[in-house]
Amino acid sequence: MSSTIEDRRRLFQAPPAQVLVAPSILSADFGCLAEECRSVLEGGADLLHVDIMDGHFVPNLSMGPAVCSCVRKHFPDVPLDIHLMVEDPDSFIEPFAKAGADHLTVHVEVTKDPAATAQRIRALGCSPGLAINPETPLEQMLPHLEHFDLALVMSVHPGYSGQSFIPEVLEKVRALRERFGDGLRIEADGGVSPKTAPSCREAGYDILVSASSVFGSADRAADIAAIRG
Ligand code: DX5
Ligand code: ZN
Fold first, then answer.
1. Which residues line ligand 1 (CB under 6 A)?
2. Which residues touch 126 (CB under 8 Å, ≥6 apart)?
3. 93: CB partners within 8 A, 6+ apart
4. For 110-133, how does the pLDDT look when each residue is reduced to its tens digit (9 = 90+)?
5. 46 carries an active-site annotation
6. Of residues 102, 149, 189, 223, which has the active-site annotation?
7. pLDDT attached to residue 3
């Protein structure tokens, strides 16, 4: 794989014919993270999803920019999708952009001025995404989406991998797809597996994040292919 930063950013901007599969490294074995990343990339992953948790916005702690930097160093061409589940996303944009992010998603529940945040993300050379939790009404996100390339519609309550998919969120996905057509990336995150992926694709999700299903599979390439459909 050889790509420029423009190629990598474009991945988050223009929906291609194919659904993209994004393993979340949250379920990787951190003791051999580079090997774990290599295994899912060789298995057909289109990008890597990196879950950042601060112990405040969500009850769990995960990793910081140093981990992102290491992944970037080992995989200079891989598109890196950073999901900021943190109380103060604005203070983490620059550190992650400098650590090699291509895409940064912030949560609508905690982003004070989404348009300004999106603009800062672009100014740092990344593409911006806006995430919404299962219990947050879609109306809270809609007025801001014109500033973003991607909507992340959480399909579990954020904080932990290995939770069950919440099918009610598909209503939000259908509404977004109807409203934005092909003009918006819509990312699923949480509980995505070969079993739940068909309903995700049917509803209009076009990036499917998966942590426990892909990393827990004895045949990661087969799991990725089945999620892609
Ligand atoms: C949830 C994270 C997800 C999570 C997905 O808080 O944002 O990316 O790791 O895990 P699975 O695929 O196991 O539900
Ligand atoms: Zn995530």
1. 24, 26-27, 49, 51, 83, 156, 158-163, 189-192, 209-213
2. 9, 97, 101, 102, 103, 104
3. 84, 104, 106, 117, 120, 121, 124
4. 999 999 999 999 999 999 999 999
5. no
6. 189
7. 77
Residue indicated by tokens 């057509």: 181
Structure confidence at residue 18 as a pLDDT band (50, 70, 90): confident
Start-to-end CA distance of the chain, whole Å, equals 22
- Nearest-5° Cα angle at 204, 133 to 41: 85
Match domain 5-228 to its CATH number in 3.40.50.1360, 3.20.20.70, 1.10.3210.10, 3.60.70.12. 3.20.20.70
Residues in the chain: 229
Distance of CA 29 to the CA centre of its chain: 19
Structure tokens at 57: 């916005």
